[in-house]
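Structure first, sequence second, as always.
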């Protein structure tokens, strides 16, 4: 990881209003979510090769063959999670830590799990740089959830589960919300599970998305 470049910082000034407008045009209207995105320097999370594209509304490659999500999808998923200021949130798939940072700005506490040690370390250093004090990280298999800290008010999964993430749903509070891409192929459907308070869920399909798969176990770092 390296710091922000001057060019990226310059681009930020010029391109951020356009990115924010693109998000609004596509239906991200929650003020807290928009503010969190607007105040997060995405160029801190992108690799050197792509720094000048940090303010485009597109997903970009990061280390370990993974991706930093498209800002619109980050906005859409965060909005769909309907986070409250007092929420304790579990996130699976820290990746660059960009989505984690957005969640940390709209909630009380974020627990985040990543299966690549390299990505986890880089994300932790970004959280330090930003002075985030409400993010708790874990290197491990997020598919297992985080039983010691459960139940959670909200859970966000940023890697695609093949089927309903039952293990994670069992770590959600009765009225909690979980948002996850679900499906086997390169295109999955974004699902929102809302607890009905009695152990069941109302499931809503939001849109098609493309996420890297949720894989079992921890990764061998390259
Ligand atoms: N939210 C991230 C997107 C990361 S891409 C961002 O904003 O940058 C998805 C991430 O999920 C990858 O880093 C991948 O390594 C991770 N992942 C996949 N399966 C996982 C699992 N079982 N446990 C934890 N992390 C997992």
């Amino acid at each position: 990881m390296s710091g922000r470049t001057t060019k990226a910082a310059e681009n930020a000034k010029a391109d951020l209003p356009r990115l924010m407008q693109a998000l609004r045009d596509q239906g991200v209207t929650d003020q807290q979510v928009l503010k969190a995105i607007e105040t997060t320097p995405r160029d801190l999370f992108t690799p050197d090769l792509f720094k000048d594209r940090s303010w485009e509304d597109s997903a970009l490659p990061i280390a370990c063959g993974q991706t930093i999500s498209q800002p619109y999808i980050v906005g859409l998923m965060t909005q769909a999670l309907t986070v409250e200021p007092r929420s304790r949130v579990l996130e699976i798939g820290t990746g660059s830590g960009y989505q984690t940072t957005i969640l940390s700005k709209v909630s009380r506490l974020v627990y985040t799990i990543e299966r690549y040690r390299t990505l986890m370390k880089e994300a932790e250093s970004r959280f330090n740089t930003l002075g985030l004090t409400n993010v708790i990280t874990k290197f491990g298999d997020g598919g297992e959830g985080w039983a010691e800290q459960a139940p959670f008010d909200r859970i966000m999964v940023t890697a695609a589960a093949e089927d309903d993430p039952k293990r994670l749903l069992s770590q959600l509070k009765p009225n909690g919300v979980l948002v996850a891409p679900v499906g086997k192929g390169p295109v999955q459907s974004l699902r929102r599970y809302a607890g009905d308070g009695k152990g069941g869920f109302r499931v809503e399909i939001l849109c098609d998305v493309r996420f890297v798969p949720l894989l079992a176990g921890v990764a061998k770092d390259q």
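Margin note: The radius of gyration is 16 Å.
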